[in-house]
Structures are given as structure tokens and as C-alpha cells.
TrEMBL record:
SMART domains: HTH_ARSR
Alphabetized InterPro entries for the sequence: ArsR-like_HTH, HTH_ArsR_DNA-bd_dom, HTH_MetalResp_TranReg, WH-like_DNA-bd_sf, WH_DNA-bd_sf
Coiled-coil segments: none
Keywords: DNA-binding, Transcription, Transcription regulation
One GO MF term: DNA-binding transcription factor activity
Domain of life of the source: Bacteria
HTH arsR-type domain segment(s): 13-105
Species whose genome carries this gene: Endozoicomonas elysicola
The protein's name in its UniProt record: ArsR family transcriptional regulator
Length: 105
């Protein structure tokens, strides 16, 4: 059994990392966005292909992709008239690192 802390006086908080992780969590906080990340893992996909995979309206998928892009989790490369999406592995590693820090790993 884990011991309960007697005092938080010596506990080190890192507000910038807490805000960073919270922003990632907010971006990932929808099942469709989690699915998009899984689909994009290790591959590049056209936006139209992602719409077909998710079974959602194009505008809905675009909004989810916008949120993931703004959070820095996904890249979008415009090749007019199409857009290719890919995962940003360094961002995923950062999320993993921030979560590991919570677990004390």
C-alpha cells in the first residue's frame, strides 16, 4: 500500500508542464480525435480518407483535425486540392513523457 503524504511543503509543482499536459488532454478528449490519432500512427492520410474511416460529416472531421493541429499533435500539408495529415511523433512522445512524470516513472 502506498503511503499518504504528510505534507506538500516539499512537493515540486511545475505549472507550465501541468498546463501543457492539460492542453494535450483537452485536444485528445474526444473519442473521434483518439481514433484519428490511431489512424494516423505511422502513416499519412488524405482528409477525404479520414472522413470515410470515421463515418462522420466532413465538417466534423475537419473540426477534430483542426483541434489536433492547433494542439501540435498533427501536421497538415496542403497539396492543392487535397490535404495530407500525419502524426507529429515528437508531440506524442512529449505527451507520454508528461504522463510518465505524473506516475513517477
Amino acid at each position: 500500500m502506498m503511503e499518504c503524504l504528510q505534507s506538500l511543503a516539499d512537493f515540486q509543482f511545475n505549472e507550465s508542464e501541468e498546463k501543457e499536459l492539460a492542453a494535450y488532454a483537452k485536444a485528445i478528449g474526444h473519442p473521434a480525435r483518439v481514433r484519428l490519432l490511431r489512424i494516423l500512427a505511422g502513416r499519412v492520410c488524405l482528409g477525404s480518407d479520414l472522413v470515410g474511416q470515421l463515418g462522420l460529416a466532413q465538417s466534423t472531421v475537419s473540426e477534430h483535425l483542426r483541434i489536433l493541429r492547433e494542439a501540435g499533435l498533427v501536421n497538415a500539408e496542403v497539396k492543392h486540392p487535397k490535404t495530407c495529415f500525419s502524426l507529429r511523433p515528437e508531440a506524442i512522445k512529449r505527451v507520454q513523457q508528461l504522463l510518465a512524470d505524473i506516475g513517477g516513472v
